[in-house]
Each structure stands twice: as C-alpha cells, then as structure tokens.
Amino acid sequence: MIVPFVLLKLAQLLIVYFAPAPFDTSTRIFLDDYTEDYAELPASLKWFVSNVASKLVAWDAIYFLKLATEGPTFEHEYVFGPLWWRLLASIPSANIFYKLLGGLLVSNVSHYLSCVVLYKLTRRYFDERTARNSAYLAVIQPSGIFSTTIYAESITQLLCYTALLLRSYGRKSPRYFLSGILIAIAFGFRSNCLLYGIVYLYDTVAGQSLVSLVSGLPLFFALCLSIYVPYREFCPERGEWCLSAAPSLVSYAQSHYWGNGFLTYFTVANIPLFIIAAPSLLILATAIYRLRNQRRLRPILLTSLVYLVVQLTCMHVQIINRKIEK
User: Fold this and answer.
1) CA-to-CA distance for 97 and 176, rounded, in angstroms?
2) I want to staple 98 with a disulfide (CB 3.0 to 4.6 A). Which of 16, 31, 62, 93 is the partner?
3) Domain ranges of the chain
C-alpha cells in the first residue's frame, strides 16, 4: 500500500509545482505578511515552500493558518475546525511556515494511517480481497489534494475509521467506550461528525444498552461545548442567533455566511456542481442499497443514509468529494 500512496502524493505535488499561480490572490496577500518568517527558513525549505507548500495555502487553509497564529477574530472563524487549528498552533515554532509544514506532515501521515485502519475495519466484516480493495480506493479517494494539504479531512478520517474499528469489537469490549471518545474528538475537527451520534443512539435503542448511551455522551458533551464557547464570547449582546431556541453559531454560520439550507443549492447555476458530485453520491447510494441486509452494518448504513440525504438537499453538494470520513 505504501508504494501507490507515495506515488500518488508525488504526482499531486508535481501537479502543484507545475500549476500556474491561482487566480485568487488571497494566498499571496496573506503570506506577504510573513516575509520575516520566510527569511528564517533554510535554503532547502525555501524552495519547497515557495514552489509547492505555499500553493497549498488556499481557501480554508488560509483560515487555519491565520487562526493557528492569531486566534479567532471574527464570528464565523469559530466554526473552522477548532481542534485542527489548535493542533497547528501547538506545533513548537512561532514561524508560520513551520506550522504549514507540520500540518502537511500530519495530514499526509493521517491519510496513510486511515487507509491502514480502513483495511482492518473492512476485514472485520468482509474478506481479504474486499479489505485490500477498500484500502487502495482510500488511497486514491476523490478528496484528492484535500487529503494532502492542511485541511482537517485526513485526521478526521483517521479518527472516524479508528472509532468504527474499535466499535466493531462489541459493547462488551472497553474499546467500545474509547470509540465514542474518538468520535467526540473528530467532531472537534469537523462538525459533520455529529451524525455518528446516530450509531450510538441505534446501539442504545436496538441493544437496550446503557454502555452505548454512556459511550455516546462524549459526543453530546462536545456538542454542548461547541455551542457554549461562542455563546459565551458573543452573547447575549450579539442578538440574532443568540436569541434562537437553539443558539448554535455553527448552524447560523452555515446558513447566513455559506447559504446552506433545505434545497437552497438547487439552482440552475449549480447544475455543474451536482454533476461533479454525482459519482460520489451514486457510489454512496449504491453501497447503502447493496449492503442493506448486513445486520452488523445497519447503524453505519443508517448514518450514511442520513448523511446522503442531508448532503444532497441541505449542503453544498460538491463537498461530498471532500468528506472522506463517511
């Protein structure tokens, strides 16, 4: 597995190297404020940073680096993977480019380890061939460069796959409770991991198990904390979302700043994005249908079904290609 993984990463980095400068100038404007940090780098790292790594600082990656060095300034920044940018901030260097390189290392190691864990997870339910094919598919997954750059996708994927692997040993194993803790941590990296609460609710109801309920509590507490922290920072003076019945900044930001909502993405202009998302949507739907009779997988399939419906009807549909933890 290591050989195709390394070859894929090298191919991606070569594409980045030869790619022209992006039309979005946000990267250059942001990094221009850190010329002194760049000057401190050794010559060997300067070449890699200027020709490859800096090109990977785009879109959300700019927010992650900014938050890792300065912390949140604006309301919507509290929504950006609070554990991910704090992990970047914990890298023992004030130099932003070392944080960038450290984040790239974490992302790529996490991607590789998630392929290994997926192999072990699949082997718990299926034969060797299926497990091996799953691992290879995880190497070339549609998330592409998002699994390479400093996005939270890879580490979230690793946490979720590991949690599901631990859960597969059954409620009588102490590893089951640990799986709930890992899902709660994953939620701190990407909020859509909240859907994994369905797994523990299913286990609680179907198995009438107190263990399942207790194991799902860390995720519930993580949800409460994600609501409390921004509420303490902005409310009640902020008004608006502070005054709602469920004062969640994440829900408000998704709707107000990014236009998420039921069928709001169903516009003529977004047809190409639905086409881009169609293969991943179809693969997920087909997998859910074909595995519907697998009793041991029912809570996972139910979670995937809810995610599929929410992704299709309420979110930016093309992002399914990034959400590799499902």
Assistant:
1) 38
2) 93
3) 1-168, 259-326
Q: Is the pTM here over 0.90, yes or no?
A: yes
H-only helix segments in 194-264: 197-207, 210-234, 249-256
Q: What pLDDT does residue 81 have?
A: 83
Ordered DSSP codes for 24-55: -THHHHHHGGGHHHHHTS-HHHHHHHHHTGGG
Phi and psi based region of residue 190 (left: phi greater than 0; alpha: psi -120 to 50; beta: remaining): beta
pLDDT in tens, 178-199: 999 999 999 999 999 999 999 9
Weakly modelled stretches of the chain, pLDDT under 70 = 323-326
Q: How far is residue 245 CA from its own chain's centroid?
A: 27
pLDDT digits (tens, 9 = 90+) for 272-316: 999 999 999 999 999 999 999 999 999 999 999 999 999 999 999
User: Quick one: CA dihedral 281, 287, 289, 290, positive or negative?
Assistant: positive
Using CA atoms of 74, 270, 187, 247 in order, give the dihedral in degrees to the nearest 10.
Answer: 50
CA 110, distance to chain mean position in Å, is 11
Structural Rg of the chain based on CA atoms: 20
Structural contact between residues 236 and 243, judged by C-beta atoms closer than 8 angstroms: yes
